[in-house]
């Protein structure tokens, strides 16, 4: 398990989408949290050491006289304060009397006090202790910040931009995979920069080293955002625009990270564990169940006659936007069982998206020849959309009209039918279909309107144009 997770972590640098898919199948939340602790400790150690060295250099700089070489106050005073008089000298000895030499003054703490910063004889403070303390506290803060602030806000924002269900359902179902990928992405994005940050104090850059540390931290944040875009697309199949919006909004939650200091109280941790252990159990169970299901499907593919296992694996890859892997699984399912209409249907949809219209129609014909009402007759909508995009307008009108007769309240089908009629010059019929599309969305339950809102917007644009 440890070696597998380490391999997935290194795979993030080569093929991040494949790495995140592997994290969903066999990644560990605990291993990801440990990576965050280690990387954060390295980076904060470098930053703290650079800060201490910069403060030491500033304390050793001599005070320069003002320009012109003149003091801002008379020689006899110091800013209105009388100049201290020199210490009194001992009176001269009378003739013939020899004074004994003065005994050397006893050493005091003040005499032996070192001049270097952060080191005193009365209260010695080691810079290494400060670096270690800062690294430990920052590492734990990074883990809690990502787990309690960043990941929940990212999931909440994604429920707004993508139809993944309510926040409560998505939290129990997807928070575990999201948290694991977040930990791995954060550690992978910042590890190279953390090592560079650890080397900066030895370059002798002085105060400029602090600017370099800040720049490294900012670059690490941008790299983390880029990896999170890939992670959101892999976990949820999110669109690029939605993923970008989430990675812009989620870091705002980290502004509340200083308020997580209350977690240092063992009483707070006890009561949080007592009241949230059920939800935490659901999260870990859901993540483990998803990984177990994938392993079961992988084992089922050893049966040379099991086409459904390949089909289910293809659906998993398809949701993760792993097109090549999904196509391979669906094709294997069709090879094992040519009557696997679900696999033909998905291959047809993928071919249409890739503008391979001849292959798409061939797969859809295999579907309708075996099941005319497959996927609640949505196969006819796909056939009509394929003909419409390929320019076969009459065939598109025929297929879409057949679909609309069976599903008269489907917004996408109504919009596609209207587009086919508009392309054929039937403006009145097209307008009627566009209005029906808008009405179908308005009369849907509230929880479904977000999923089909884009068809309503497209229909309104057609009516306005």
Structure description:
The protein has helices at residues 2-14, 16-26, 29-60, 109-112, 127-161, 167-199, 208-236, 240-249, 266-300, 307-319, 323-336, 341-353, 357-370, 378-390, 393-406, 411-423, 427-442, 446-464, and strands at residues 77-78, 81-82. The protein is mostly helical and 465 residues long. Among the domains are: 2-59 and 127-257, no CATH class; 376-465, Tetratricopeptide repeat domain (Serine Threonine Protein Phosphatase 5, Tetratricopeptide repeat, Alpha Horseshoe). A hairpin with a 2-residue loop joins strand 1 and strand 2 (81-82). Helix 15 packs antiparallel against helix 16 (411-423). The longest helix is centred in the N-terminal third of the chain and has 35 residues, at 127-161. The radius of gyration is 35 Å and the shape is elongated. The protein starts with a helix and ends with a helix.
Keywords:
465 residues; mainly alpha; 2 strands; Serine Threonine Protein Phosphatase 5, Tetratricopeptide repeat
Topology:
Blueprint: H1 2-14, H2 16-26, H3 29-60, E1 77-78, E2 81-82, H4 109-112, H5 127-161, H6 167-199, H7 208-236, H8 240-249, H9 266-300, H10 307-319, H11 323-336, H12 341-353, H13 357-370, H14 378-390, H15 393-406, H16 411-423, H17 427-442, H18 446-464
Antiparallel strand pairs: 1-2
Helix pairs in contact: 1-2, 2-7, 3-5, 3-6, 5-6, 5-8, 6-7, 6-9, 7-8, 9-10, 10-11, 11-12, 12-13, 13-14, 14-15, 14-16, 15-16, 16-17, 17-18
């Amino acid at each position: 398990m440890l070696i597998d997770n380490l391999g997935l972590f290194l795979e993030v640098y080569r093929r991040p989408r494949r790495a995140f898919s592997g994290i969903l199948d066999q990644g560990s939340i605990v291993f990801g949290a440990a990576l965050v602790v280690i990387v954060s400790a390295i980076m904060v150690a470098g930053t703290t050491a650079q800060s201490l060295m910069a403060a030491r250099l500033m304390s050793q700089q001599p005070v320069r006289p003002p320009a012109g070489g003149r003091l801002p106050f008379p020689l006899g005073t110091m800013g209105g304060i009388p100049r201290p008089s020199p210490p009194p000298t001992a009176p001269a000895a009378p003739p013939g009397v020899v004074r004994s030499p003065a005994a050397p003054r006893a050493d005091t703490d003040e005499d032996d006090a070192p001049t270097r910063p952060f080191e005193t004889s009365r209260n010695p403070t080691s810079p290494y202790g400060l670096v270690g303390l800062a690294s430990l506290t920052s590492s734990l803060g990074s883990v809690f910040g990502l787990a309690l602030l960043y990941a929940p806000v990212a999931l909440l924002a994604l429920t707004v931009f993508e139809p993944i269900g309510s926040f409560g359902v998505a939290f129990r179902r997807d928070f575990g995979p999201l948290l694991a990928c977040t930990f791995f992405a954060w550690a992978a994005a910042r590890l190279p920069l953390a090592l560079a940050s650890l080397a900066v104090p030895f370059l002798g850059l002085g105060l400029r080293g602090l600017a370099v540390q800040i720049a490294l931290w900012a670059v690490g944040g941008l790299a983390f955002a880029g990896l999170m875009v890939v992670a959101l697309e892999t976990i949820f199949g999110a669109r690029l625009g939605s993923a970008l919006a989430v990675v812009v909004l989620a870091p705002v939650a980290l502004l509340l990270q200083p308020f997580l200091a209350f977690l240092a109280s063992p009483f707070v941790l006890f009561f949080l564990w007592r009241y949230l252990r059920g939800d935490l159990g659901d999260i870990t169970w859901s993540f483990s169940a998803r990984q177990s299901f994938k392993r079961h499907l992988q084992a089922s593919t050893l049966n040379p006659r099991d086409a459904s296992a390949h089909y289910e694996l293809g659906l998993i890859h398809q949701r993760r936007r792993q097109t090549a892997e999904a196509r391979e699984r669906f094709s294997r399912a069709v090879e094992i069982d040519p009557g696997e209409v679900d696999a033909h249907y998905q291959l047809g949809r993928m071919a249409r998206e890739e503008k391979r219209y001849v292959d798409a129609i061939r797969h859809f014909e295999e579907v309708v020849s075996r099941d005319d009402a497959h996927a609640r007759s949505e196969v006819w909508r796909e056939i009509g959309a394929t003909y419409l995009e390929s320019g076969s307008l009459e065939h598109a009108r025929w297929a879409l009209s057949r679909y609309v007769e069976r599903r008269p309240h489907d917004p996408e089908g109504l919009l596609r039918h209207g587009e086919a009629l508009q392309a054929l010059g039937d403006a009145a019929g097209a307008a009627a279909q566009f209005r029906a599309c808008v009405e179908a969305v308005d009369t849907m339950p509230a929880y479904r309107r977000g999923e089909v809102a884009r068809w309503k917007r497209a229909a309104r644009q057609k009516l306005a144009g």
